[in-house]
Amino acid sequence: MQKLLLSVLIGCFCITPLTAFGAMTIKLGVVTKPGSAQNIAAEKFKDLIEQKTSGEIGVKIYHSASLGNETELLQQIQLNTIQMGVITDAPFDTINPITRVISYPFLFKDNAQADEILDGPLGQEILTALEAQGFKGLCFSENGFRNLTNNRRLVRTPADIQGLKIRVMASPLQKIIWQTLGANPTPMPWPIYTELEQGVIDGQENPLWVMQEYKFYEIQKYMTLTRHVYSSHIDVASLVWWLTLPAETQTMIREAMCEAARFQRRDNREKDAARLAFLKEKGMQVEDTPNLGDFRAKFAQLQSNDIYSDAKVNDLLLRIIAATR
Length: 325
Hints:
It contains 13 helices and 11 strands. Helix 2 (about 35-50) packs across helix 10 (about 245-270). It has about 325 residues and is α/β, with parallel strands linked by helices. About 40% of the residues lie in helices and about 20% in strands.
C-alpha cells in the first residue's frame, strides 16, 4: 500500500527523472534563524552541493519558519512542496514513534556515544523506518544536550520543578517527560521569546546555543545543566522526490548532507564552553551540578510506558539502551 501511494504521488507531481547532476534547485526548510544550529547544517550543505556541481544544482534555504513550524515543514516534505529539511527529532514523534528512542531521558552519556549510535546501524534503522511515511532519512545533525531554564527559581532536584509551566515541542514523549518531573508541559511552536517575556510560560528546555542565539538570558533568570535529553536533528528528503533522482545524484546529496551534519556537530560542540561563560556573564544563575541521580530515578520505568508500547519501538529502545551501558 505504501509503495502504491508513493507511485501515485510521483505520478501526480509529474516529476521527470533527472540525468546525473541535472540543473535543479533544492528547496530546504528550517524553522530557525541564520546562525542557528539547523541553519549551519543547511548552509554547509548548500555550499557543498553548489561546489560539487559547479552551481548546476542550487539550494534555496527557507529559514525562520517562513514556511511554517516543523510539523508543517514535514508535511510539505512528504508532499514534495519542498525537497529537504533539517528538523528536530521530536516533531517526528507523532509521524513515526520509532524516533522516540532518540529522546529517551539520559540515554547517551556524551557526544561520542550519541555519534556512535546514531551514525551506526541502530541509527540507520531509524532513518530507514521513516520511508514508510514518505521521508528519505539521510543522517543526523544536532541540537545538542538540552538544559532547563525558568524565571521562577533555581532548580537542583526534580522537586524544584513542581508546578513550573514549561514549553515543550509538539511531542507526546516530551509531555510525558515533564509530567514525570512534576512540571506543567505546554506544547508551543517556535519561536517562544514573547511567551517567555510575558510570563505565559515559566521556562523552556533547549541546548546552550539556543539560550545565546535567541537571547533568553534577557528573560530567563535561572538555568540548570540537566542535559536530560540529547536532541538530534534528522536531516531528511522527500521520498517522492528522492525516487526520481539518478543513483549518482542521490549518493552525492547524501554524502554532502552527512558531511554538513558532521561539520555542524563539531562546530556546535566547540562553542559550548564559551556559550556557558557568556550566559553566566550576562547574569544567568546557573546550577552546574544538579542532583542528576534523582532525575534519572524518575525515569527508571519509562521504557515500560505506553509511549514505547509499539513492539518495534520498544525492541530498538532496549537494544540502544544495551549498547550505551
